[in-house]
From TrEMBL:
This is Uncharacterized protein. Residues 229-280 form a coiled coil. Residues 1-63, 131-176 are annotated as: Disordered. Residues 29-45, 138-151, 159-176 have a biased composition (Basic and acidic residues). It comes from the Eukaryota. Residues 46-57 have a biased composition (Pro residues). Keywords: Coiled coil.
């Protein structure tokens, strides 16, 4: 009877489920172990996460200024080393950016200077300034040449006076004193004439020319002719330089005249004493 009950119990639906549950409970640990092994094997073959490398800045040509990429302003940095590398790359990019800006500024400056030079050449101001400089140099050379010729004339007169009347020593001394005095008088007259000419030139033609140029400049500015105003400004500068040269020459001429007057007074005093000695005779 018991065997029949057991056999009939096996074929009942509830009994079959309980038997399967018991069998599954026995198989469950083995399946869990297999899953763990599979997971471990899969983890071995999973590649490691890629390291973070910031993108390198793309530097364009010197004609255009490079812009910084957007990734530099809000990057995702995994660790401290990558953050430091990122900062270094950012500073390098900023440095290249500033160098490109500096090169652009220098290029614009050179272009502006070239344009100014071309404008001056087109206006003919450079040739005009060179012309005025050449004229002033020629005038100065003529004055120096005239002074040299006058000195040669004086030296020839002195030599001619020294060769005359060598018979008497006293007469030679008197003649030398007289010739020196004559030379000093001639030089004194020349210096006086030079001072007069320079004074008249400074107070007359040079000053008048400056006044006329100032009037022309004001008229050009009033008529908005700025190119003419610029040219007249250069002429005014050159005229002022010429006036300064004349004033310097006038100061030198006045100093020479003062020294010449002192020499004349000394020679005159010596001649007076000598004449008195000759008239009085030696004291016994």
């Amino acid at each position: 009877m018991k065997s029949q009950r057991q056999t009939t119990a096996k074929f009942r639906p509830g009994a079959q489920r309980s038997v399967q549950a018991n069998q599954n409970s026995q198989k469950q640990p083995k399946q869990d172990q297999k899953k763990e092994k599979v997971n471990k094997e899969e983890q071995r073959h999973i590649p490691p996460p890629p390291s973070y490398t910031p993108p390198k800045p793309v530097i364009q040509s010197s004609q255009t200024i490079p812009s910084l990429p957007i990734s530099y302003y809000s990057p995702i940095i995994p660790d401290e080393k990558q953050r430091v590398r990122h900062d270094i790359e950012l500073l390098k990019a900023k440095l290249l950016h500033l160098e490109a800006e500096e090169a652009e500024i220098l290029s614009r400056k050179e272009q502006a200077e070239t344009q100014v030079t071309e404008a001056v050449k087109q206006a003919g101001l450079g040739e005009q300034l060179t012309k005025y400089k050449t004229q002033s140099e020629q005038a100065e050379r003529r004055k120096i040449e005239n002074e040299r010729q006058s000195d040669e004339v004086l030296q020839s007169e002195i030599l001619s006076d020294k060769t005359k009347n060598k018979e008497n020593d006293e007469y030679q001394k008197d003649n030398k004193a007289n010739s020196d005095f004559k030379v000093m008088e001639i030089k004194h007259a020349q210096l006086q004439e030079r001072v007069r000419v320079l004074s008249n030139e400074i107070s007359g033609s040079t000053t008048l020319h400056l006044v006329e140029l100032e009037g022309e400049k004001q008229a050009a500015i009033a008529s908005k002719n700025f190119r003419a105003a610029q040219r007249i400004t250069l002429e005014i500068t050159e005229a002022r330089k010429q006036k300064e040269i004349l004033e310097t020459q006038l100061i030198v001429a006045r100093n020479d005249l003062s020294l010449n007057e002192q020499e004349l007074s000394k020679i005159d005093e010596v001649q007076t004493q000598r004449q008195q000695y000759l008239e009085r005779g030696p004291i016994n």
